[in-house]
Amino acid sequence: MDRTKALASSWEANAGNWTRAVRERLIPSRDAGTDDAILAAISTHSPRRLLDVGCGEGWLCRQSVQTLGCEATGIDGSSQLIADAQCADPNGRYEVITYQELMDGGVSFEAPFDVIVFNYALFDEDAPSLLAAIRPHLSAMGVVIIQTLHPWSLEQGQDYRDGWRNEDFSAFENQNWTAMPWYFRTLSSWHQVVRTAGLALLKLEEPMASFNGQPLSLLLTCECHEGDPD
Amino acid sequence: MDRTKALASSWEANAGNWTRAVRERLIPSRDAGTDDAILAAISTHSPRRLLDVGCGEGWLCRQSVQTLGCEATGIDGSSQLIADAQCADPNGRYEVITYQELMDGGVSFEAPFDVIVFNYALFDEDAPSLLAAIRPHLSAMGVVIIQTLHPWSLEQGQDYRDGWRNEDFSAFENQNWTAMPWYFRTLSSWHQVVRTAGLALLKLEEPMASFNGQPLSLLLTCECHEGDPD
């Protein structure tokens, strides 16, 4: 099985664990600041309509509707995660759509979105194609917001270069997880992804952990680029 | 004396040491890749006219003229460094111009520049004002290229946040150096500097050291931004 498929199927296999980890707040970085950071980044753009790509069990859709009063649509490739999202939010709009379906171009939405967000949901090697496929669903002044691992979250001694890595979820006490391949990108590579997708970097933020003065994540807000991509 | 003035006068005090350090190749990172990286970044834009701001003893002007065949103008606030540059390159165009003079707006040049470069020469806190002051001297498709310390060149345990630091040149055997205050910026801050100056990030590069697989520098290529700065 190639890594892209293994990545997608790891989410299906880990759906139950993941929903529990989010809802029981077992992921320290979220409380340390990454949850607040993504909500603040979205809030800056006062969206009427939000698309949450790789929404998982739906917390960001629920939070955005509650705190920002916008309409939110959540999509995810895992039917179990979408079922969990719908169960927690029966009136919410959730749909099983895979990244491959998005890239194949057959997906349509009722209207364009003011914010399209990928919150720790852009782990595949071919991120530019996915971003380029999502770009036509942006409203005229719409933005794409990406939160992801900060590139210097590398373990000591690892080479600083693009490549597949493996998340084994060993930080969780429950060992019943399926390993997830994910594609590490340098900072330079993230910038190139954005430009290749026909976007331009409007804002680059580094939400900070107060406990150690180090960045928790990389948070990119991207607008459509008028000229040709590089 | 405030830090901006101390920064400027440290270059005057260190001029002799600096010229020797560059010409005797005493700075390992330059051979490891930062010299080649800045020349390659300039070369991408095939400039007819180059402005090297904070040119020091002039190596980048000399190299650009020799290898790229462009016209080069070097400016620096240190009269000693400009004298050293002129001495090594009697036909070259060098001029003593301080950053304050650039920001005050009274400086004029014969014609606009296709590339304006700051190679380890943007160490002051008010970098946006300097960049904004230099922007009108760009040609229509001109770019500003900045090479600087990679933000994760922090020493262990230092907080990752903007602020003045002190370079004591202790890596050099010769101890006859005057300490130089310089303003450390996070990645997020660098991006904000670029946007505040009315520029947009065209390319973000991280020249790599082959010996340890870690980035040597941060290399930003910026174009004029059509819209309003953030």
Question: What's the arrangement of secondary structure elements?
Answer:
The structure is a homodimer of 230-residue chains.
Chain A: H1 3-13, H2 15-23, H3 28-43, E1 49-53, H4 59-68, E2 71-76, H5 79-88, E3 93-96, H6 99-104, E4 113-119, H7 127-134, E5 138-148, E6 163-167, E7 180-184, H8 187-196, E8 199-205, E9 218-224
Parallel strand pairs in A: 1-2, 1-4, 2-3, 4-5
Antiparallel strand pairs in A: 5-9, 6-7, 8-9
Helix pairs in contact in A: 3-4, 7-8
Task: Kindly summarize this structure in a few lines.
Two copies of one chain form a homodimer. Chain A has 230 residues and is of the alpha/beta class.
What distinguishing features does this structure have?
seven-stranded mixed β-sheet, Rossmann fold, alpha/beta, homodimer
Major sheet of chain A, described briefly?
7 strands, mixed
Q: What's the CATH architecture of chain A?
A: 3-Layer(aba) Sandwich
Q: Describe the global form of chain A.
A: globular
State the end-to-end CA separation of chain A. Answer: 32 Å
| SSE topology string of chain A | HHHEHEHEHEHEEEHEE
Query: Helical residue percent of chain A?
Result: 25-40%
